[in-house]
Amino acid sequence: MSNPASALRIVLLEPEIPPNTGNIARLCAATGAELHLIEPLGFEITDRHLKRAGMDYWQHVHWKVWPDWPSFRRSLPEGSRLWFVEQAAPRSYHQASYAPGDCLVFGRETAGLPLPLLQQHPEGWIDIPMANPAARSLNLSNSVAIVLFEALRQLGFPASTPLNPPPHNAG
């Protein structure tokens, strides 16, 4: 479980593909990020593909399903910052300055985030640059990983533990 006081929040607005959400749950388990799923979902939480992609990590994830965007938004502490990851943003994800408690918001796999939501929050609209415009978009779980790890890098990887290298074999 993550530490709610310092965790980053991954927010999936109307996710549609169970394996993507399962992979993101696994990512949240590994990093200590919270996972917030906003309905409607394109699958049942009991979906075998969702569970298979998340493997046995779900018990290690601080997660919640919300009935809609306004319910989720009302749940946030005052001053919570929202980063909306979507194409055509005024700046790139690596130009944002992340803080503990930030929400990284991602949209549906087939439609992204709604334009009105982005227009309401231009200061938080960021994207992942892509060299080839013919490649419509990146996979959702890949996009979450890219932005989450940049935020964690900026925060000094607060939930990580140092790796212990194996002892050197002088023999």
Report on this structure.
- There is one protein chain.
- The radius of gyration is 17 Å and the shape is globular.
- The chain is an alpha/beta fold and 171 residues long.
- Helices cover 29% and strands 16% of the residues.
- A 7-stranded parallel β-sheet has the order 3-2-1-6-4-7-5.
- Helix 2 links the parallel strand 2 (34-38) and strand 3.
- It has a single domain, classed as SPOUT methyltransferase, trefoil knot domain (Alpha/beta knot).
Give a short synopsis of this structure:
By secondary structure, this protein is α/β, with parallel strands linked by helices.
Protein traits:
alpha/beta; seven-stranded parallel beta sheet; 171 residues; disordered C terminus; Alpha/beta knot; 7 strands
- CATH domain class: Alpha Beta
Q: Helix and strand succession? A: EHEHEHEEEHEH
Report the span from N to C terminus.
Answer: 41 Å
The biggest beta sheet reads: 7 strands, parallel
Poorly predicted regions: 1-5, 162-171
**How many H/I helices?**
5
CATH superfamily: SPOUT methyltransferase, trefoil knot domain
CATH topology: Alpha/beta knot
Topology at a glance:
Layout: E1 9-13, H1 18-31, E2 34-38, H2 48-54, E3 63-66, H3 69-75, E4 82-85, E5 91-92, E6 103-106, H4 115-120, E7 125-127, H5 140-154
Parallel strand pairs: 1-2, 1-6, 2-3, 4-6, 4-7, 5-7
